[in-house]
Amino acid sequence: MAELDGKIRRTVHHVVKGLLDEADAKVLNAPLLAQREQARLRLATLPSVAPPPAADTIDPDAFRTAVLQAWHDRPL
Q1: Which of 23, 27, 29 is nearest to 11 (CA)?
Q2: How far apart are the C-alpha atoms of 9 and 15, rounded to whole Å?
Q3: pTM of the model
Q4: Is residue 18 part of a domain?
Q5: Which domain holds residue 26?
Protein backbone atom coordinates (compact mmCIF):
# COMPACT_ATOMS: atom_id res chain seq x y z
CA MET A 1 0.00 0.00 0.00
CA ALA A 2 2.88 2.35 0.73
CA GLU A 3 4.27 1.80 -2.76
CA LEU A 4 0.88 2.53 -4.33
CA ASP A 5 0.45 5.64 -2.20
CA GLY A 6 3.87 6.84 -3.35
CA LYS A 7 2.97 6.35 -7.01
CA ILE A 8 -0.30 8.23 -6.54
CA ARG A 9 1.49 11.09 -4.77
CA ARG A 10 4.06 11.28 -7.57
CA THR A 11 1.28 11.64 -10.13
CA VAL A 12 -0.30 14.43 -8.09
CA HIS A 13 3.12 16.06 -7.76
CA HIS A 14 3.51 15.97 -11.54
CA VAL A 15 0.14 17.70 -11.93
CA VAL A 16 1.19 20.40 -9.47
CA LYS A 17 4.47 20.94 -11.36
CA GLY A 18 2.59 21.12 -14.65
CA LEU A 19 4.16 17.98 -16.11
CA LEU A 20 0.75 16.24 -16.43
CA ASP A 21 -2.71 17.56 -16.89
CA GLU A 22 -5.49 16.54 -14.55
CA ALA A 23 -7.25 14.23 -17.04
CA ASP A 24 -4.05 12.24 -17.67
CA ALA A 25 -3.43 11.99 -13.93
CA LYS A 26 -6.92 10.56 -13.40
CA VAL A 27 -6.28 7.93 -16.10
CA LEU A 28 -2.92 7.02 -14.56
CA ASN A 29 -4.24 6.93 -10.99
CA ALA A 30 -7.42 4.90 -11.67
CA PRO A 31 -5.71 1.47 -11.66
CA LEU A 32 -3.49 2.50 -8.75
CA LEU A 33 -6.50 3.54 -6.69
CA ALA A 34 -8.24 0.25 -7.50
CA GLN A 35 -5.17 -1.75 -6.48
CA ARG A 36 -4.90 0.23 -3.24
CA GLU A 37 -8.55 -0.45 -2.43
CA GLN A 38 -8.05 -4.18 -3.07
CA ALA A 39 -5.02 -4.13 -0.78
CA ARG A 40 -7.05 -2.42 1.95
CA LEU A 41 -9.78 -5.05 1.64
CA ARG A 42 -7.21 -7.87 1.85
CA LEU A 43 -5.64 -6.23 4.88
CA ALA A 44 -9.02 -5.95 6.58
CA THR A 45 -9.67 -9.69 6.13
CA LEU A 46 -6.35 -10.87 7.58
CA PRO A 47 -6.66 -12.69 10.89
CA SER A 48 -5.75 -10.71 13.97
CA VAL A 49 -2.42 -11.25 15.62
CA ALA A 50 -2.50 -13.70 18.50
CA PRO A 51 -1.11 -12.38 21.76
CA PRO A 52 2.30 -13.73 22.72
CA PRO A 53 2.32 -16.65 25.14
CA ALA A 54 2.68 -15.81 28.79
CA ALA A 55 6.13 -16.02 30.27
CA ASP A 56 6.95 -19.11 32.29
CA THR A 57 6.62 -18.62 35.99
CA ILE A 58 9.27 -20.99 37.24
CA ASP A 59 10.46 -20.49 40.78
CA PRO A 60 14.27 -20.21 40.46
CA ASP A 61 14.88 -21.82 43.85
CA ALA A 62 12.61 -24.79 43.07
CA PHE A 63 14.27 -25.19 39.67
CA ARG A 64 17.76 -25.14 41.19
CA THR A 65 16.68 -27.72 43.79
CA ALA A 66 15.20 -29.97 41.09
CA VAL A 67 18.38 -29.74 38.98
CA LEU A 68 20.62 -30.51 41.94
CA GLN A 69 18.41 -33.47 42.91
CA ALA A 70 18.45 -34.81 39.34
CA TRP A 71 22.24 -34.43 39.27
CA HIS A 72 22.57 -36.26 42.58
CA ASP A 73 20.21 -39.09 41.46
CA ARG A 74 21.78 -39.59 38.03
CA PRO A 75 23.05 -43.08 37.23
CA LEU A 76 26.80 -43.34 37.25
Answers
A1: 29
A2: 10
A3: 0.56
A4: yes
A5: 1-46
